[in-house]
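Note to self: keep these together.
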Amino acid sequence: MNTSGRSQLKKGVAYHGNRILRHVESDMRDIIEHHFNLVVHMFSHNDWDRHRNIMREIIQISEGYGLEVWIDNWGIGGPPGDKSHFLSYYPDSHQVYSDGTVDPVRVCLNSPDFRKFTREWIDVVKDIGGKSIFWDEPHLEGKNIINGKPSVWTCSCLRCKKLFLEQHGKEMPAEFTPEVEQFRIWTVVDYFAEVTRYSKDKQFENIICVMLGGHFGINLSTIAEIAKLDTLDNIGSDPYWLGHQNVDPYGFVYQATEENLSICQQYKKDHNIWIQGYGNPGGREEEIILAADAAYDAGARTILVWGYRGSESNDYRAVNPDMTWQITGEAMLRITERHRNEQRLIARAALGKGDLSCV
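Structure:
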């Protein structure tokens, strides 16, 4: 444990949409020039099939420039990443809603075939040189939210109904009962207990980011249960303020970061907090600075942005990607300078020199 009071500031950005190595080279330099020291690379099913060796080189290029690399399980189980290609091979592994409809793109986390597939994905990540896995926004789907609870929800497939009967001694109801909520929490936690144990045995660091809300089957109870896993090293969230009505970016991000850090401190986990750098409306780019300040002020020291250059390669890009990226770099420089000054004061205090801010 670090008893000096000094801490490392990690500043990361999500990077995807490009697999051309000469562009990767210049983009990694651009990321460093915008004051980042960490990059999150997607590794989708399509990357596995078509870019496996290219991804190995992308990791090598990134690390060669001094960037820490996290590998994102982007879309292997469906949104928020790509639609799951896995379901083309295992059509009996779809999530099923409580009204009997099938989700066309999301995978049931209780599918043994999907868990096997996840282990195989971990093996490939190991082969291409990954060291840290970023488990991106795991969730079960819900619709028609009333008082924070979904009235239509997953997963109610035959497999999950059988597991529910075994655990609760009765048939799974169509209503969203406390037992159903408990089962959904158990499903998410059990999946991650299995796959993070496998990845930990492969010497990976396990990092997770969760979206809070009944819509996603994630609440504080779920996070607490996930946090108990000794195979999970780092727990984060993404308090994206855009899309919420009448919220103050600073206050919204500050409060969410405090809640995240409280759970991490309770269970002795590291943390990651994400700042919204996509979908930013014109004229509101400065809110990125407020949000980064809020995360830092609340105590976060691993702060990341989704995504590179305002996510300009996606339809959900910022309205003004160049302006968004410029201000994102300014936000990272701002917290970098703050952190350097704080570390300097800590170092001087350790020498008994006090605060000589005029020097």
